[in-house]
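User: Batch of two.

Assistant: Item 1 of 2:
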Amino acid sequence: MSELTPDRLNKFKKVVTEATRGFAIIITQVDPDAIGSALGLAYLLKSIRNKNDIVIYYCGSISHPQNKTAVVRYNLSDILQPIKNWKSGRHVVLIDSSKMTDARLGFELSEQPIIVIDHHRGKDVVETDNSFVWVEDVGSASTMVTELFSAMEIRFESLEPVIPTMLALGVRTDTDNLARGGRRDWRAQNTLRDSVNEDEFRQLFNYPLPPSFYRNLQRALEQVTQKSARLVTNIGIVLSEEGDDVSTTADLLIRQDGVSLVVVWCLLEKEKRVRVSARNTDSSRDLGLFLRERLGPSCGAKVTEDGKGIGGGNLTLDFGFWFNSDTRRETEALVSAYITSAVFRD
């Protein structure tokens, strides 16, 4: 059964049917949940309108090994467009995000989204007669899109394998392999299970990690600074394709006994910016507010169903030069001093 009432399902169909333009689905952060839910939602929009007038845009880069494995396996580079290719004129659809002010967009949306589906708190979009906004506390956006498929009585066995596989991967990754999943997430996973090839799914879930990750992890362990339950570290100056190592490292370090807040950062060598990833297990701490107050408005966070925080952002280095062979160490030390003092400040 779906959590959608018949009235809400009819509202969704009405909004899609009466749309006067095509749709631009925006993924503000590339991960399996966002990719899976975007692919699933795109299929539903096409099936309702019987039109192929949908573009999926993603913010940031496809650099995480798991994302790269999925993109190569399913030729998704032909489907997903970088946000730099953005063209106005289509109705905006937000998936796995519910904020028009999401800093990861990199620009300001000129119109209210017509559809918003998200499992994070803190939306700033209000539903109108001509829009559909569905935000609930569940483990993943993929769970919600799977519920839409069930409500519309569309069987996954009839679809291309990429849709149920990526939805299943989205559910698993955003719920920590269902350890943080609720009843609806387990039910969604069971709905998808028979349509997913187990060997294929295993390859996507147990993705290979490059040697550079282990070098960066070693660097992070060597640079740890901890005060009470807060921990800060970095992986230094890295190439853009290694930037996702900060989030993987943060996922590992937050499991350390006695730690409730982890902040991991890196300097992206060719982009003149600092990438930050944060994890929080203290439900009394608003991680998004904490990061914005300490590190600036370009940072934010989502809150999981069990109250844990997952966040981060990008800091632009706005002094008038970038590091070279003579200034790398000084630049890194300056960023380290800034972030460490910001996180530990009482």
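Item 2 of 2:
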Amino acid sequence: MLQKVQDAEEQTRVMTERYQMMQGQVTSLLQERSTLATELDTVRGNFTQLRTQMAATGADATSQQQAADMEAKVYQSQTAMHSKSQELDAMRREMDTRLADSSQFKQLKNIIKEKNGQIKTLRSQLQSLGYAVDTGGQELTADSD
């Protein structure tokens, strides 16, 4: 039983490390997304300004069309970035639920529940035999994360 608890604790530790690594990656991606969004807004503003200047100076139609094409690509990039942003948010939500739903986590919860029951039984037996039992510490429940 002790080996099972140790194995479950090790699996939980590994899962927790993996979860923290994934959270670090998500944070990094969110920062990168924010930077890219700012850059994209700047580029879009620059293209709008460029088109306005080209129209004011009477630039040829080919140049104006190229500028319009580049601006359209910027908008497409922004749409793709928004799509990836939504995908990233979905991944973050999935990652948060994955740890709690993992079989190792559930097994550890069950083991803790069993051990708490055994401790209660042993305490009551000791008390019935007349021994003073220290009930200090924190009792964990199966729903504790």
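Residues 12-101 form one domain.
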